[in-house]
Every structure is written in structure tokens, then in C-alpha cells.
Amino acid sequence: MLLRIVGLLLSVVTWLVPVGASAEDAVPGLALRWLGVAGFSVSDGETVLLHDPYLSRPGLLATLFTRFRPDEGLLERWLDPGGPAPEAVSARTILIGHSHFDHLGDSPWIADRIGATIVGSGTTVAIAQAYGLPGERTRLLDPGDEIDVGPFEIRVVASRHAAVMFGRVPLTGHVLEPPVGPIHALSFKLGDARGYLIRHLPSGVRVYVTSSAAVDRPALEALRDAGIEVDVLLAAIPGRAPDYVPSLIELLRPRIVVPHHFDDFFVPISEPAAGTATSPEDLELFEEEVRAASERFGTDTEVRRVALFERFELVSD
Ligand SMILES: [Zn+2]
Asked: pTM of the full predicted structure?
């Protein structure tokens, strides 16, 4: 265990320094990796999906007083087979949960650099184009739509954004036409908030990811009514609505819940504090809420905390 932790720390610390010839081969088996904030990779060793990768993390002042620009040098080093998420460079699809800058900000640049397509709302597509991503590398999908990406079947599920700022949902609204980029972080309007139901066909494993801690209950009821249960739920936790955890546990009946979006995204990704919870108490409270809901609905759900850049294997090869 200690060795594993040391290895993890080393991999986090050393990736900022270019390293030669240490490229990790693609590891088979279905696995997740948390990238900080609401960012994840899902990989089966051949096909890689990214969700809301956000690594640039300019500080609070830069975010407030300058237009948002991805940190190209940092992203270039991150997108390296010797980096802390070696599979990321192989992604061909980037799913965007909603269009706020801490979800969408880096993705147009990443997509352009690695030849991936961004999937999201009309607002996501318009902002991606403002950052220079060609229209044909964006894909507008609405709730209810489904696509296949290699062995993954992906369904867009209507969802909502939590009231995380003084009891209100921040930066609501849509961006209908591509603005002139780069734009200010506060001009990254919400668009819609959606969940993605990801099914890996060869293993049958289902993963559901929320980008914010609220739900559209009728959309989840429709999944329940279709007999769909998920194996792994990736649940954003800040500012969650009272019905968030009970609805997710009752209607999706997950075996494992991985909490995320509890870290401070103004802390640079290379700092030791990156990926730690701004409120450990709230993280524990979330775990208690999951336990209570699991007992109430008889689901036997367990919470699994995944560290920054840790590879969490769902199905071994
Ligand atoms: Zn948001």
C-alpha cells in the first residue's frame, strides 16, 4: 500500500518534468481515473473517453480579471504517455457535463491537440468553436440522444445544476452563436447540465456521471422504469440538493459511488493540495448520506474515494 502511495505521489510530482522513454503501455481492463474537479477518463485499454478534463486552473485573480486561456504548456506535458493519465492522449471523445469554465475550459484545446471530438450542448459547441475548434469536431447532443464510441454506448440524460453560489445556480443561460474567443471565465454560461450514462458493451458495466449535484428526477425515473441499474456512479457533491443522494441511490441503485468536484480548482494541479477536499466534513457527510440511502433502499452501495490520478480498475483483463 505504502509503495503504491509513493508511486502515485511520484507520478504526480514528476509529470511536470518531461521524461523520456518511460511511456506506459496501454493497460487492458476497464478503468477510471479522476483528473480533478469533474474530470475523469474511462478506458478499456483501447477506447478512451474523457469527461470534463480541467487541468489549467488559473488562480482566482487571473480567473476574475483576465480572459480564460488554457495553459498550453501544462496541457502539452499532461497529454503525454509518460504523464499521470497516460491514456488521455488516446481519447477521441470528450463528454462535457455543462459549459462552465471548470468543465469546458480546457477541452477545445485538448480536443484540437489530440484529434478528439467534443460532445455537449449547443452552448458547449458554440464556446468550443470560439476557442478555434472546427465545427466538425464538435457534436451537439440533447438529453435522450445516444451515440456509440467504439465499445461504449453513451446516453445523454437530462440533469440540473446545483445551487452552489449563495443558494443560486451560477452563470445560467445559453451561448447560441460562437463568440469571439478567448472569452472571460464568467462568459462560460451553463447551457444545460446533463448526466452521461456510459455502458461498456463487452463487460456490461454501466457508469453514470453527474457534473453537478442536482438531478432531474423524471429523467432518472425513466431509467429506473427501463430496468437500468448502474455499477459505478460518479457523483459531484458540492451544494447538493436535498433529494440528490436519495434520488440517485433509489433510482440508479449503484454498487459503487465515487464522489468528485470537492477540490479547490484554483489550486494548481501540480501542488500537493490539488485533489484534496476543501471540506473533509462535507465529504464525510456525503458518505453518511449514501449509507443512509443505501439502507433505506436496500442497495448495498459503497463509497470509494479515488485519489487524484489514481487508476481505479472496474474490470480486470
Ligand atoms: Zn458548474
From this structure: 0.91
